[in-house]
Amino acid sequence: MGKVTGKAIYPADLEFPKMLYVGVVRSSIPYGRVVDVDYSKAQKLPGVVGIYTWKDVPGENNHGVIFKDLPVLVKEWVKRIGDPIVLIAAESKVILEQAKEIIEIKYEEHRGVFRVEDALKEDAPILGEKNNVLFDIHIKRGDIEKGFREACFIAENNYSTQMVEHGFLQAEAAVARLTENEEMEIYVATQYPHYDREEVARCISFEEERVKIINTTIGAAFGAREDMTLQCHVALAALLTGRPVKMVHSREESILAHGKRHALKMHYKTGVTKEGKLCALQATILGDTGAYASWGINVLRKSAVHAAGPYEVSNVDVKSMAVYTNNTFSGAMRGFGATQVAIAYESQMDILAQKLKLHPLKFRLMNTLKENSITITGQRLKSSVGAQQCIEKLMEEEGIGQ
Fold this sequence. Notes:
Elements: H1 2-5, E1 20-26, E2 32-38, H2 40-43, E3 48-52, E4 62-63, E5 70-71, E6 77-78, E7 84-90, H3 93-102, E8 104-109, H4 116-119, E9 133-141, H5 144-149, E10 153-161, E11 173-178, E12 184-188, H6 193-204, E13 211-215, H7 231-241, E14 245-248, H8 251-257, E15 263-272, E16 278-290, H9 296-305, E17 316-324, H10 338-356, H11 360-367, H12 387-398
Parallel strand pairs: 1-14, 12-13, 16-17
Antiparallel strand pairs: 1-7, 2-6, 2-8, 3-7, 4-5, 9-17, 10-15, 11-12, 11-14, 15-16
Helix pairs in contact: 6-7, 9-10, 11-12
């Protein structure tokens, strides 16, 4: 009701006495080394209270939901357009924007990699620890060669899905202040307040008990608020200035700052018998996890697990990889990898139904998972398997006989 009436309180609505406004200067190149940061002109600007770099971080200068690889403030290497480099605290929003404009950053720009296929080449720049593969999984079941020998028809195609922006109405914002009890209070719209507390405490070198994450009204999230964006920045600024601070992303900065849905490239080869039963599925799935790990491991694992969708296939060979590139990092978004592969397996079902001269719904009904079906990972389904009933209802509505 509060959202409808306009009475809901978001972080950007909060005001405290003597509040400062905080922002960051972000990298303008996708890959390279920071050679020099000159903020001398901005430092002299009236109303600028503090300018900080990685040297001013008292604790750990990194964070991340699985691996701690996202920089709070870049020390040397930038890996994407939008990496935070300089933190500024100012008396007003206008002064803050003026200061951001006159900070000069010099780079030694390096060749980046922006396609998963290129990231897997031998001469690609290494963005991960040893190579550009964050994660890979291989699911094998049955005998894939035997499955294709039994096939009457085979569909083999390439599919791709694009990177997707979450587009929530409330861009990221946060307010932080150091209390009289020397506790750090952060007001933020987040999906993981306990994780935020842990990461902020690491950054400012506080015991977790001294960090309080106060979850405000959330103007949608869809997964993007699982990764942190500005929590450490406001905590750091509040600690170093000793005053309450507020940071509010513009729409442009929001798009730069948070992760996206993984773009996937998928090669599918699916076989079906003359009786209309799926007998073989071979798939290779490459996910663009971008410059940082985020949830790439979980997303591409789920892409593999859901590669056959709600259908029974006895012979399976599925490979799935999360690959580093210099694109914006990809993370959580509704569906977690299961959404993208649906484009591939459902298209394959339509193509094979056409080859068999069967109605697409009837073909799906012949192959759908039912109670006691075994999935491609070997799991036996004992309950909550409703795909068959859904398809039957659709066929009934369309007047299609079984």
